[in-house]
Please model this.
Amino acid sequence: MADERAAAPTSLLDELRRAVRDVSADPDLLASYRRDQAAPALLEAGTPAALARPVSTAEVEAAVRVAARHRVPVVPRGAGSGLTGGANAIDGCLVLGLERMDRLLDVDAAARTATFQPGLVNAALREEVRPHGLTYAPDPASMEFSTLGGNIATNAGGLCCVKYGVTRDALLELEVVLADGVAIRTGHRTRKGVAGYDLVGLLCGSEGTLGIVTEATVRLLPAPPAGCTLAAGFPTLAGAGTAVARIAGEQRPSLLELMDQATVRAVEARYPMELDLDAGAYLFAAVDEAPEPAREAIAAIARICEEEGADLVVASDDPAEGRMLTAARRLAYPALEQLGSTLLDDVAVPVPRVPALLSGVERIAAESGVLIGTFGHAGEGNMHPTIVYDHRDADQVARVRTAFTAILRLALELGGTIAGEHGVGLLKRDALDLELGPTRAVQARIKQALDPDGILNPGKGI
Model:
């Protein structure tokens, strides 16, 4: 059945080629668009019938109308950097690759807004607005290669979101192509506005299941001062967790990140930085205020770390040294990837429960007999326990699945969520009932209202 569905009907291809200039059914090219970066040993990926790479909203509209007439599923895709299978293909689908819609359309420095197409890379936007003395705040670790459309689809966060918020907090207006191939604009460029339902908030994080973003306007902020940065090593993970809860409650850092011992050792092995391999955890903090307030705040954070047992505290107000201090954290996931196949989790709990989450993950690792490196946005309670395993070992794969589910349940027991910023995709759809309960049916009705034939990224997100 899969092979039959994968072969695109001639009529479908002919209509797509009249609608979009760049359409392909080449098997080798389609194979490269089958999946995102999520664990291939654990998640299925189908064979697309065709790939269309539009360059305009009009082409997206036309492609979706063709797919709707043929009742063909549409899987939108940006850079394919996702980690939950949200961009994985479905047998017989149309993959809509948006990477060529990568233009920055407008920067309004006076209004502090930027408007762009979804294929623009996060870091490229940040570079473009820098000469205006402005910045785009959401800064996921993948910002050098992830697209803003993908960031919107998952409501991506980042290292500095503890102070500045996530993608949804920056979004003002969206242009979206709906399941019938009609583009709408929703939201407003004003700082306030409550006319009608908040469709921008609804569409952000919906993983392409309700509409396909073709243009977005976001809020920019004045570029912050360099401020001060701190790195602290703790002999125990518990001490670092307690320090996180105190710092988040008593101070207002712009960055508060954590790496456990397994992650520290992975980073040091791959990218030597003279990290203490015996440390139970490292904390990284930054304060981006004016010089004197920043120094006072970082000194207060240093005192909290020392009171909670840190045996190494290094602080600096030099921007280059600050980047060096936090570089290890940005390399956490690439370093763990070097150890084997990885399954990255993305749970979030109330910040005071971070110590309990960290100790619980340690217990799960011991009970399941798998290596788990934990790092993440501790100041927001959003952690990324990452399981490292050999995908060729069936016993390990089974234990990985058990550990992964146990982490999701732990987060819920602590009053948290199973998905903080990477989306649900395919990876966590079976666990949604654990968190949503009866409200999942309400969400299904919203999906039905906006996509009655179920063609937009079916099986993902809800």
Remarks:
- The chain has 18 helices and 19 strands.
- Residues 1-5 have pLDDT under 50 and may be disordered.
